[in-house]
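Subgroup meeting minutes
Present: P.N., E.W., G.H.
Scribe: E.W.

1. P.N. recapped why we're keeping a running log of single-chain structure predictions: easier to compare across weeks, and new members can see raw inputs and outputs side by side.
2. G.H. added today's entry (501 aa).
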Amino acid sequence: MKKLLALVLALVLCMGCVSMATAEVKKPEKITMMVDTTVFTQANGRDLFEARWEELTGIDLEIIQPDHSAYYDVLQQTIASGEWPDVMILSSTYYSSYAAEGVLWDMTDAWEASDLKASGRFVGDRVIEGLKIDGRLYGFAPTRGNGCVTYVKKAWLDKVGMQAPTNYAEYTAMLDAFVNQDPDGDGVADTYGVSAAGFVGGEAPFVNYLAEFYQDAYPFFVQQEDGSWVDGFTQESMKGALERLAEAYAKGWIDPTTLTNATKDCRNKFYDDGFGVFTYWAGTWATNLKTNLEAKNLSGELVALPPIAEVGAYFDRVPPVWAISSTCENPEGVFKYFIDTMLDGGDMQMLWTYGVEGAHWSKAAETVLAGTEKEKTYAEGEFHMLENMETAGTLYTKNHIDPMLSLATFAEGYYDPKEDSVKPEAKASSELFNASSKLAKIVPTTEEMSMYNGDLTTLKNELIAKVTMGEMTYDEAMAKFEADGGKSWSDQIVNSLNALN
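Output recorded in log:
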């Protein structure tokens, strides 16, 4: 009788599961999406992207797209207002904190039942597992995280008679030469060695734009080999990092506008030959940097450096994720028609990866970049990217999904243009990064983290800047760190993290 009852109960539960699994998900009439400029901007045909997405789904898509550098300021204001978008893109820091605060919908069950997971084309199980918080999934990443490698202008190396550096002494010698030996050949000592978007990054892994100076130092919370947590900012390694930054700033190796630069400012200065060393994203950006330099009639040949000895490995960041807000009226529908279709192996994946046919890519018989040194004629049916609407003389390379980082293949029989679209320098850069990188980890968000980390980070960034610019010694900075409450905030966060173990 007990066995019979157990069997009946199991059948009832199973039928319930089947009923839930096969229940039809309501198709949304409209989805609001908040995204940074990793999706085509207005100037680059965003309306065409939106129209094509709506054509493929039959759903009205409203795109909210702040400027890239202001994205998280606008996002925080939007969340504070209570008028949340249905779906938004988040860095690992915001993903962790918003999940803890109840802003995000738990998509674990939806993912387990998704068409993409069942397709056999998905190759990112490790990434998805890394995104889980306490075993639950609150965001989806269509790509690996990727990270930055250090690019050096080959023409500048040749001008100063140097080879690519392999350690910090050689690296700083190169920076010094780039400042003092007129590498751009204009007869004026007006160049810098390196520039970056801030002395410390605004999101994890924080140190990726100036890795050669930070080396083994990390200004955020770090889990040690024994499982315990520490605040990297308070470790001895940070003293060495700040002293290296201060020396580089004092000697003029670092562009002084680094404090206020956005990434776009850095790119523009790099294209204008203002500095020679730029640590930026591996893969497609190697091509973007090359083509934009050539558009300014400069040499586009860049040397992608393996990590110098003291760095050891670049950081492979936790990828940005697409998350659904917990106030979304139909989260199951948004998941099914927005997230689950992103890597559908067909037309939608093509749209997210390469853009709109006829606007961003084409298979038509035509000549692109006519009248330039890069002019090229394609035969009918031959895949090629089209000229950038915003930056004349350059070609598009991708849309939101980098084909070299994608976590799903195209469906069998569907043409994958990857080999025809990825340039040699992008492939080489990506392979270098993959061979010499280490995975960054999500730091859990605790009540104390939510309460204190904002002020703590502001204080840390202020002190890093002041020491770097010579306005304060390291010892003075640490005294201020304690006096202004930083040590207390840090200790409380560390204790809360260790309480999770």
